[in-house]
Amino acid sequence: GIMKALRESPEVRAKLGEPIDSASLVPLGQIQRTGENSASGMFKFSIKGPKDSASVFVQCDMLNDVWTIRRLDVRTRDQSVIHLGPEKGPRPGMWDADPLGGLADPLATP
Asked: Which of 5, 17, 73, 109 is 20 to 30 Å apart from 67, CA to CA?
């Protein structure tokens, strides 16, 4: 998932230190259905480590319940950008309980 990719990145670990955690309660952005089995989204959230903090920018698409991360960028406070991704997987990290504190999948049917 997204947080796993961030935590495993040597560049992000070097800039922020370890451990790396989410510093946002809820990501900012939007997810829009583009069809019955498809959606696209863009959002941003903050992460922090013992050395520094950063903003994470994500662009993603979903087709047939598989999310594809098209862009995963980390912008540190000194304005340097670390480009990560893309990755594929069944709902990669962004909505499971670990990365962002139990945030529910916004596309789930109640």
From this structure: 17
What is the C-alpha radius of gyration for the chain, rounded to an integer number of angstroms? 14
Q: Are 24 and 2 in contact (CB under 8 A)?
A: no
CA dihedral (84, 44, 110, 38) in degrees, to 10, reads -50
Q: Hey, which residues does 60 pair with through a beta bridge?
A: 41, 69
Give the tens place of pLDDT for each residue, 1-17. Answer: 788 889 999 999 999 99
Query: How far, in Å, CA of 67 to CA of 4, rounded?
Result: 15
pLDDT of residue 87: 58
Q: Which residues contact 46 (CB under 8 A, 6 or more apart)?
A: 22, 23, 24, 53, 54, 55, 56
Per-residue pLDDT of 66-108, as tens digits, reads: 888 888 999 999 999 999 876 554 444 443 333 333 333 444 4
As a whole number of angstroms, the distance between CA 64 and CA 89 comes to: 11
Neighbour count for residue 20 (Cβ, 10 Å): 23
